[in-house]
């Protein structure tokens, strides 16, 4: 009986000690007699987006045995989240009854801004809550709850560059689009397409649509086409409507529409051929063999070894439409001697006579004549084209190789003058010889006619003497 009483007394003593300790702990706010539960019940959007706000819904619930008052809830943002101007990060609840269920909890909303350069991932945010027990001004409860917010990288693509600004008419040319994922999340199932509303520029060998299955953040991809512009199109700047679609994180399709400019038309080409030569003047046929018109065309014979231009070395022939041609003439003399050697202006008389002697000898190794064509293209830019015309040269004369006209002398002006003098002297000499022969013949005839008369006169004299 005594043992039982002693045991009972000991147990009761321990119970009183525990109750005393519990009261002391309760006064420090460290037991659940006054306890708060803080939870993140909703995040909008479900994943925060870089450069966009995110809204947090927080529930505050008193599950303790004591009523609470002056509840203060503060959100402490850290990178990549920050305060939005005009939005409070601290909110208050005046009173919370004890032993609340979920329906009685206080609901608070906070807004934060997500940094535009935030990377995809999960980030921690602390929510601090303070409260006082009702009926006690000194017992303050403080609870810090750490929550996690998901950041979804921004899905965005950009068509950074197009590889060229112009294409030629009726000519197959490559066209490349460089697409870059400028967001923070990978892109998938991308589709790029483009269209010229006027139908001048069209793809060849494929349609205008290309597919990209996956593009990581920060990566670029090149999409290539072969395109051609209508040969009958007017030169000018044409618009390309470019569309880029892709799937976002929630498999929703997004579209990015943009425009680009592409100039159609530009440079052209020429064919230059020998036309004819006459007395040191050569004529060149210049044809526009390209697909674009050439404006303000100028044809020139530049300074070069083997040829000398007297007079103007260039001529303006005006505009040449595609397929048109014109004739440009120049006074050009060959300074190339026999065998392709070049003679100087001060050639000695002996060398000149040697050249005259070999005037009918053709120089097979002569240099081609260089011709320069300048014109303004459809973009308004001045373009220079260099051409060469292969000629066969004789001493001071020029003909197109294999295309010499029968009987065409083509002599230079100096040699022509010299030849004229020789012909005149020959003609004068021949005339003088004929004249002298004619006089000699007439003299002989006169002598023959006088002999009989002299004989008659002699006999008459004699007879007359006899009569005397």
Descriptive report:
It comes from Methanosarcina barkeri 3. Residues 341-351 have a biased composition (Low complexity). Residues 459-468 have a biased composition (Gly residues). The chain is of the alpha+beta class. It has four domains: 1-27; 31-151, Immunoglobulin-like; 157-264, Immunoglobulin-like (Sandwich); 270-415, Sandwich (Immunoglobulin-like). It is built from three helices and 27 strands. It has helices at residues 2-27, 349-357, 413-467, and strands at residues 36-44, 53-62, 68-76, 81-83, 90-96, 106-114, 121-133, 140-151, 157-162, 166-167, 173-181, 187-195, 201-204, 209-215, 220-229, 236-247, 253-264, 270-278, 281-288, 294-300, 307-310, 314-320, 325-334, 369-376, 382-389, 391-394, 397-400. The strands form seven sheets. The chain has a five-stranded mixed β-sheet, with no helix packed on it. Strands 1-2-6-4 form a four-stranded antiparallel β-sheet, with no helix packed on it. It has a four-stranded antiparallel β-sheet with strand order 5-3-7-8, with no helix packed on it. A hairpin with a 2-residue loop joins strand 26 and strand 27. The longest helix is centred in the last third of the chain and has 55 residues, at 413-467. It is rod-shaped, with a radius of gyration of 56 Å.
